[in-house]
Amino acid sequence: MTTPTVTASAALPAKDELAQIVQQVLDEAKRQGASSAEASVSVGTGLSVNVRRGEVETLEHERDRSLAVAVYFGQRQGTAASADFSAQSVRDTVTAACSIARYTSEDPAQGLADPALLAQEIPDLDLDHPWDLEPDRAIELAVACEAAGLEADERIRNSEGAGVSTGRSMRVYGNSHGFLGGVAGTRHGMNCVVVADQGDGMQRDFWYTVGRHADELEAPEAVGRQAAQRAVRRLGSRQIGTGRMPVLYVPEMARGLIGHFLGAVRGASLYRQASFLLDSLGERVFPEHVTLSEHPRLPRALGSAAFDNEGVATRERVLVDRGVLQGYVLDSYSARKLGMTTTGNAGGVHNLTVTPGSLDFQGLLREMGDGLVVTELMGQGVNGVTGDYSRGAAGFLVAGGEIVHPVEEITVAGNLREMFRNIRAVGADLDTRGSVRTGSLLVDDVMVAGQ
């Protein structure tokens, strides 16, 4: 008996088929007396493999499906979910949501998005590029990636593994305002983690690549070698003395810093009055050279979407213009709580970009002179209400614009409001591997606690 070959590009249901399920939900909600309703149906398929020391540790084929329903009786909301798309399950799920809604309290902010804001047309953003990746080929790629890392330097003595993944999903959303839209998308990736050993200590580090199309991924050998290079350069790490100094966050770490800003201007934090940037609209929160803008319709980008999770059309906008906060990150509920209008960010931001500066990484080191490069952050020491920030870190000491030696077991601390204002430069090394896109950030006057 021949075992059938399973690939990552297993067929998904047609968009029209999922749209019919959404319409069934909306019709059933109306039949059960709901004044309005919304529903989303999503399906996904994927393949992932992880190897370690040349042996397969895990091989997973995934198929996910979900149905989410929200019904409204006036301004009382009920929600329910299911993984079963059968007609009976649809009826039962709507019934459950309606039962919940009848017992909830009125909330003036509840309800569907304003129909005038819903997407009228849905352009093709080139997000769907299935990778016909069979398990044997996925294993070959992961093994090659790890082998390149292990062979890159004699000080690479061990590996925590390499992985290859591919996934494809389709989501259809509709509501009783008449909106019905769907989109398919893919996401492929590869990663490697290796361990360097020099006798007096071990260090681990990683690298990864991700994209909508398999052709956009770095070669497996390049990923492995980059992971090895990053691990080796951390050998001999030690503490440094405590003091205030400039800190250069590499792009992967800078993305987290911008994430703290986004958390502070997100609607939920604002209407709960749990943000250190409360009532900061129109104020300068970054230096004049810093601009943040959203570009939701970039072809093939990881954060692209023609409409948000409520069907609201996405649009380009400037969130921070030359340092001045121009808007918040709102969905319909939080916007109503604040007496404002949704910004099309139900589900998050879409390709939020910190406008790059002119200096590459080496140029930023020279600009900094003496200070610290942060390449890893640990812990969750961030207070969103006060902006107080304190996280464990590792990286490199810099003197005279040159890296001197690796550093570990230190803490970087400050207040985020002050840290944002103290950004001296944004790097040209833009990292596009996510919905937040930024280069390195050079921040002045950060407290570094070491010995």
Describe the structure.
The protein is an alpha+beta fold and 451 residues long. It folds into two domains: 15-232, PmbA/TldD superfamily (PmbA/TldD fold), CATH 3.30.2290; 237-451, no CATH class. It is 22% helix and 35% strand. It is built from nine helices and 17 strands. It has helices at 15-31, 87-101, 135-151, 220-232, 251-264, 267-271, 332-337, 361-368, 416-421, and strands at 36-52, 55-73, 76-82, 156-175, 180-197, 202-211, 243-249, 292-294, 317-321, 324-325, 352-354, 371-378, 388-399, 402-415, 423-426, 436-437, 441-449. A six-stranded antiparallel β-sheet has the order 3-2-1-4-5-6. Strands 7-12-13-14-17 form a five-stranded mixed β-barrel. A five-stranded mixed β-sheet has the order 10-9-8-11-16, with helices on one face. It is globular and about 70 Å long. Residues 1-6 have low confidence and may be disordered.
Key terms for this structure?
alpha+beta, PmbA/TldD fold, 5-stranded mixed β-barrel, 9 helices, 451 residues, disordered N terminus, 6-stranded antiparallel sheet, 35% strand, single chain
**Alpha carbon gap, first and last residue:** 66 Å
Give the count of structural domains: 2
Please report which band the strand proportion falls in: under 5%, 5-15%, 15-25%, 25-35%, 35-45% or over 45%: 35-45%
Strand order, sheet with most strands: 3-2-1-4-5-6
CATH topology of the largest domain: PmbA/TldD fold
Q: Structural class, from helix and strand content?
A: alpha+beta
Largest sheet: 6 strands, antiparallel
> Which geometry do the CA atoms define?
globular
Low-confidence stretches: 1-6
Described by its quaternary structure, the protein is single chain
Helix content: 10-25%
Mean pLDDT score: 96
CATH superfamily of the largest domain: PmbA/TldD superfamily
If you compute it from the alpha carbons, what radius of gyration comes out, rounded to the nearest whole angstrom? 24 Å
N-to-C order of helices and strands? HEEEHHEEEHEHHEEEHEHEEEHEEE
Identify the CATH class of the largest domain.
Alpha Beta
Q: What CATH architecture of the largest domain would you give? A: 2-Layer Sandwich
Number of helices: 9
What is the count of β-strands?
17
